[in-house]
Amino acid sequence: MTQAGTSIKSDNNDIRIRTSLIKDIYVEQYGSASPLLNGILADIADLYQGKWESHQACLTGYHNLGHALDVALLTARMIGGWNKLADDDHPGIDKNLFLAAIAAALFHDSGYIKERGDDKGLGGKYSFSHEARSMALAKSYLIREKWPSRAVALVPDIISITKFHVPLEIQGLFKSKEEEVIGRMMATADLVAQMADVDYMKRIMDLYEELDEAYEFEGIENLERKGYKVFSSAQEMIDGTVGFYENFVLPRLKQLGRMDQYLVAFFGDGRNPYLENITANLSDQLMAKRNSWQRLGDVLKDLGMATRDQIQAALDRQNKSLNRSEARDGLSTQTLRDTIIAWMEGSLIADKCLGEHLMDMDVISPPLLRKGLLHQILPTEMIESLSRRELMVLLQISMLWQKIGRGTWLFTQILEMTNELLNCEGSHILLAKTESQEMLIAIPTGPRKEQLDGQTFPADKGLAGWVFSHGHPAIVSNVSEDERFDSAIDSHLRGTVETRSILAVPLHINGELIGVMEAINKMNGGFTGHDMNILTLIANIITVSLESVFRFREFNS
């Protein structure tokens, strides 16, 4: 039987599914359906849809019914994970506390909804005061629907600790450990559900519209005087996402006791899909600032060299060319001279790249294609951030790669140069073996390199598995605090050698993801975004050189 609520991908835009998942978790925990739960789920939907006599429909684009249900579902999942542990440190959360936690989650942002007769704005004006309105609305509802008296007092108190503009205050709010646990869980869910939303970046536009209305309603100078951060644009919010997560969300989650850890117990497979989604969102944001790894078509479009329609037409031509290439018999030449002549005449390579098709279509000229390729591989802003020493080492690595056919000893020396450049303990290449769904450790450097060489592990495990499956780079400053890190695999592979920090980037050849390149244990502090830039440049140099080797072998096959 599939466990209730084990997918967070298919239910993001479906209110009915999220509602059903919450009910299923309750039944799994307590054995039967709850009229109170069924009633509040139906009533909260009516509230947000404007069916209450006292309130209009919710008009805010970010804090809507979907967000309320996301927070409620995540809260239910954490409670389910907690109850699975069932030991002295984890006393069971009973059904009454479960219901109180869900009620708090469902009402926690109801303060954005305008009352009947309120004709100013969409509700965003309440951004800095919605918690008090939410608490009052929840209390009046619970009294009207004759909920237990303890829930009437408890639910508003839980909502109160979602005030993220002020220091966290929990002392004295709750009468038991179990009450405090559900309070911490609901406040955690409010943060995690927001950051894990697959549309998080897109929805920041909606969030900024709400804040902009509040700026006008409250007054920017007044808000700044009270210590609130005032954003000038949605782009400023987007640009600050990584810093917001590192400097506010993570510290607040720690203050709340990292209640999201109980999602691992709930899902039961050693994973926390919410954290994976957060990491993907943050990686997307990091990658958005590093257009060196965009596809060539995107680069040409961003530079104004080609339109979307022109790029699509060139892609269609490229696909047809590739089909013809697969159908033709392989060519064989007797001498290197003959091979080079055939290559120059174009008889060996029928599968032209996108840029070449755009040149054939007279969309771009060779100089423009050259500019686009260089911008793709070596963007100006990245080159300007490199020191003279870093540029010199990268040049040396590029020159050495021209001799890659000399053997794997040269490959090892280039990785050793990478270690010196990044000031790290070791590095290695991980190649994906698609037939066996494994990652093969190739050319390891650093401690235990002899034992690591040729070892394999499942392609979906560990940080390397995450980077390979998502196609995003990753920086882990402390592996003990990152759930993507698989300590069991690491211990098996590296023995007593401790892994402290990891930097990993994907390896692509001609658009195909073939593996991962990792650097291990920064000597002084943690890996940085600048280190990621350097390692990605080296990965690009490696894959371009490997592609050239493969093509050369094809010429002579």
Summarize the structure.
The chain has 557 residues and is α+β, with helices and mostly antiparallel strands. 57% of the residues lie in helices and 7% in strands. The chain is globular, with a radius of gyration of 28 Å.
Structure characterization notes:
With 557 residues, this protein is α+β, with helices and mostly antiparallel strands. The protein folds into three domains: 15-289, 3'5'-cyclic nucleotide phosphodiesterase, catalytic domain (Catalytic domain of cyclic nucleotide phosphodiesterase 4b2b, Orthogonal Bundle), CATH 1.10.1300; 293-377, no CATH class; 385-555, GAF domain (Beta-Lactamase). Helices cover 57% and strands 7% of the residues. The chain contains 25 helices and six strands. Strands 3-2-1-6-5-4 form a six-stranded antiparallel β-sheet, sandwiched between helices. The longest helix has 27 residues, at 529-555. The protein is globular. 36% of the residues are buried.
Low-confidence stretches: 1-13, 287-293, 326-337, 339-350, 550-557
Give the terminus-to-terminus CA distance: 52 Å
Number of distinct helices: 25
By oligomeric state, this entry counts as: single chain
How many domains comprise the coordinates? 3
Kindly state the mean pLDDT as a whole number? 80
Content-based structural category:
alpha+beta
Please report the total strand number as a whole number: 6
Strand proportion, as a percent range, falls in: 5-15%
Please identify which CATH superfamily of the largest domain we are dealing with: 3'5'-cyclic nucleotide phosphodiesterase, catalytic domain
State the CATH topology of the largest domain.
Catalytic domain of cyclic nucleotide phosphodiesterase 4b2b
Q: Roughly what percent helix?
A: 55-70%
CATH class membership of the largest domain: Mainly Alpha
CATH architecture of the largest domain: Orthogonal Bundle
